[in-house]
Inverse folding.
């Protein structure tokens, strides 16, 4: 069964065990998914209310986008753990002969690249969610404004957690072009995301 389909208690137990997965990558994706869910909740508490009628189109778009990102981030949570199985398979490969060692090195490089893809996706989706949330600040149900601040915190945690997973994987990759591409993309997403997350949090806190 996928991680996204088990209970919070079961997930917490799996996370606390000595199994290497799920780990930080899955938690980063879950954190960001919860952030998107919170923004969706605020939109759900805003739609149809006459006081916010001028923002109804934005609210409806936020509902759609937030749900899409919530689902994508949950999928990332599942895939992050599933892809780690590829890494575990490499650890079990024989390494007695030069040929076996060479095959193992190649498989390790492929596994490290595969394990770098999902964290960068998490960062991208989280950034999209932060842009969406930022656009919604001050235009939604004021009684739930604090939830947008919490959403920003969760999305920011998702970005930073995913970035650590990108870094630990690309650190062992020999393909310089791949490493440079992921480091550049990740660094840019990190910088933009943190600025937005801080901006949202401070704006929301300033109104309470």
């Amino acid at each position: 069964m996928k991680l996204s389909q088990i209970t919070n208690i079961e997930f917490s137990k799996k996370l606390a065990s000595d199994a290497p997965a799920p780990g930080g990558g899955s938690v980063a994706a879950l954190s960001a998914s919860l952030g998107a869910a919170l923004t969706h909740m605020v939109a759900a508490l805003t739609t149809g209310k006459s006081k916010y009628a001028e923002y109804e189109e934005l609210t409806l778009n936020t509902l759609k986008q937030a749900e899409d990102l919530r689902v994508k981030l949950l999928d990332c949570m599942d895939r992050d753990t599933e892809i780690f199985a590829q890494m575990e398979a490499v650890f079990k490969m024989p390494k007695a002969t030069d040929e076996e060692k060479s095959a193992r090195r190649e498989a390790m490089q492929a596994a490290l690249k595969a394990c770098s893809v999902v964290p960068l996706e998490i960062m991208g989706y989280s950034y999209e969610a932060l842009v969406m949330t930022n656009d919604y600040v001050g235009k939604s149900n004021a009684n739930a404004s604090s939830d947008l601040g919490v959403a920003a915190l969760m999305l920011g945690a998702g970005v930073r957690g995913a970035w650590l997973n990108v870094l630990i994987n690309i650190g062992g990759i020999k393909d310089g072009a791949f490493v440079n591409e992921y480091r550049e993309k990740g660094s840019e997403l990190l910088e933009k995301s943190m600025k937005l997350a801080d901006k949202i949090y401070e704006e929301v806190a300033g109104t309470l």
